[in-house]
Amino acid sequence: MKSYKPTSKSRRQMTNVSYRGVLTATAPTKSLTYGFKRSVGRNSQGRITMRHKGGGHKRLFRDVDFVYNKKEIPAKIKSVEYDPNRSAFIGLAVYKDGEKRYVVLPKGVKMGDSFIVSEKAPLSAGNRLPLRNIPVGTFVYNIEIKPRGGAKIGRSAGIFAQVVANADGYTNIKMPSTEIRKINEECWASIGAVSNEEHHLENYGKAGRSRWKGIRPTVRGTAMNPVDHPYGGGEGRQGRGTKRPKTMWGKVTGGRKTRGPKKYSNVFIVSRRKTGKNK
């Protein structure tokens, strides 16, 4: 992590990931980028469905490959790059037939390293195999939920899942949330853990950096009036005053299970995630 001399109040606490020894390119590959408009918390009708989002620096979208449908063709990492749309580092993979694609990089992989998508690939970082060919105890990322559906699980910085068991056509995966879930053994996953593992240690230091990221200010409920929030009102600072924590619309946010009892994927959950003190 990179820290700064306390030349101001915001600089005193600010920390940043040190990119100098990791990134090898400053500009993205033009053929793999295009402009886009961020939804910033709005739905298709323009209504706010998630608060505290908006503004931020204009971004260029990097077309990252999560399908990995080029099999049995080795690829070499030509550059390690920053992606403003995700927390992990991405790498420009150049396949032996000349095609270029962006991929999410695993921890420890650097410029010049190679990987391959193959059923018989060795168990080294970045290589991609079907879950049935991955031994128990291996760390994996970029995991498919459905065969040929593209990677959906384990894509954030520093994240990894673990293969726990293989039986009856399914592979048990221990998620980063501690949940253990059954996934079809025909699904593919990449070996290793996602890069930029220090991302969660980053301290913005000032409100302005949050605005650059597109994060708008959050007002505490206890600072509001009673008409605006269940926690509002009172003389001076007051306690919550309600039995359980709530949103400003009165919906309970702690101590109540929100997963539907008839959700289609309940049959695939072997062990629920641990929450609260048990975690």
Automatic annotation (TrEMBL):
Tell me which Pfam families the record gives. Answer: Ribosomal_L2_C, Ribosomal_L2_N
Q: Which residues form the Large ribosomal subunit protein uL2 RNA-binding domain?
A: 41-118
* A biological process term (GO) from this entry: cytoplasmic translation
The answer to keyword Cytoplasm applying to this record is: no
Ranges where the Large ribosomal subunit protein uL2 C-terminal domain occurs: 123-252
User: What keyword terms does UniProt attach to this protein?
Assistant: Ribonucleoprotein, Ribosomal protein, RNA-binding, rRNA-binding
Q: Which GO terms describe its cellular component?
A: large ribosomal subunit
- Which Gene Ontology molecular-function terms are recorded? rRNA binding; structural constituent of ribosome; transferase activity
Q: Where is this region: Disordered?
A: 220-262
The record, for PANTHER family, names: LARGE RIBOSOMAL SUBUNIT PROTEIN UL2M, RIBOSOMAL PROTEIN L2
The protein's job, in short, is:
One of the primary rRNA binding proteins. Required for association of the 30S and 50S subunits to form the 70S ribosome, for tRNA binding and peptide bond formation. It has been suggested to have peptidyltransferase activity; this is somewhat controversial. Makes several contacts with the 16S rRNA in the 70S ribosome.
Q: HAMAP family attached here?
A: Ribosomal_uL2_B
Q: What is said about its interaction partners and assembly? A: Part of the 50S ribosomal subunit. Forms a bridge to the 30S subunit in the 70S ribosome.
Q: Which family does it belong to?
A: Belongs to the universal ribosomal protein uL2 family.
Q: What is this protein called?
A: Large ribosomal subunit protein uL2
> What is the name of the gene encoding this protein?
rplB
